[in-house]
């Protein structure tokens, strides 16, 4: 039997057994104890689904703020003395437009200037109550926080801010940066969750106070109840996740909570057991139908993609398996980013393509495993010779590519001369065999009319010329 068919049969069996077992166990447990099933199974499952959607919908701004806080451009601009506010204004405007946030900002810890896409809004002051959030955020032990506050650039419109600390190399605070989402936008997401899952959804902070809620919100949790001698408030706020139920009149209220570390809030999903009795069997049938559809879809997609799965895995890999360096797939987006940054800032950018001369002879004489060890050692030495800001990747075979930001062709040439000199005075010892490594190197420096592809092409042509000149040569294209 073909291997693909065996895999399909195995996957079909696993999916079918998994879905059927899960749904049937859920059905019989629900019949035995409806409240227990809702409290312990259904609500946590819905909580997982909502949490996954929160990661999709609400964690993106945190990721954006994290990227801003770790952006070398932002850090360099601050450490250079904040000399050109228009640069940071343009940067913040680009963030705001690119990611469709209602605002983006940076506050310098040195100058206390509040930088915004529209300019410098103000200076934050430790004496103003409206600015205390900044001094609280900069002293956080964590990297960031979510804060609901008024946006000074939007006529004091309530906004959900992601405040992210910007740290220098010495782990000192350079300031606070981040983005903001309209509170109404976040509340609309909560409304969508509530409509989709027909449950009450809201957030509370570490003190148990409600921070965000939708139209279905029925009031605070009754924290006065005890469960097995443990107060509801303590059980929720002292655990990463908790499922509790308590009586309220003729109803049984069930609550599922989980701590969302990125927000420093608790997600609360709440529902009553009223009018749920007749829905259990319908839910079983619906779940079985959904499981069948998912099984069909998964099997169909698996059948269509199984043949090309290995190829896609290789395409997804970002690291060269042999040398541990970046591979070409990883290099392409880095090149585009550095190219755009150099174009925007008018800074220098150089690229080197290095080819080990006569490497085929090494493979022919000692074998490919030996040649692989040579490549590993060469990659290690090249990595040791580069700057932290440089990007080194294995370009293919015995070729390596080095991208050098803020380096002119003269500086790149000086670096390669030093590199050749180092290798000229070095004998690699592989399996007790001395190997002499020499490079042909092509260099190209970015010019105004360049595109990324042509930029690399010029370096490649320079390498070809170096080979034609007799190898162990450096040619600047």
In short:
The protein has helices at residues 3-32, 34-57, 59-69, 72-79, 85-99, 132-138, 183-197, 232-237, 279-305, 309-316, 328-345, 359-366, 368-385, 409-424, 452-468, and strands at residues 103-108, 113-116, 119-123, 144-151, 157-167, 173-182, 200-204, 210-213, 226-227, 230-231, 241-248, 251-260, 265-272, 349-356, 391-396, 399-405, 428-430, 433-435, 439-445, 474-476. The chain is of the alpha+beta class and 477 residues long.
Please explain how this structure is put together.
- With 477 residues, the protein is an alpha+beta fold.
- It has two domains: 52-274, Beta-Lactamase, CATH 3.30.450; 328-476, 2-Layer Sandwich (Alpha-Beta Plaits).
- The protein has helices spanning 3-32, 34-57, 59-69, 72-79, 85-99, 132-138, 183-197, 232-237, 279-305, 309-316, 328-345, 359-366, 368-385, 409-424, 452-468; strands at residues 103-108, 113-116, 119-123, 144-151, 157-167, 173-182, 200-204, 210-213, 226-227, 230-231, 241-248, 251-260, 265-272, 349-356, 391-396, 399-405, 428-430, 433-435, 439-445, 474-476.
- α1 (3-32) packs across α2 (34-57) and α12 crosses α13.
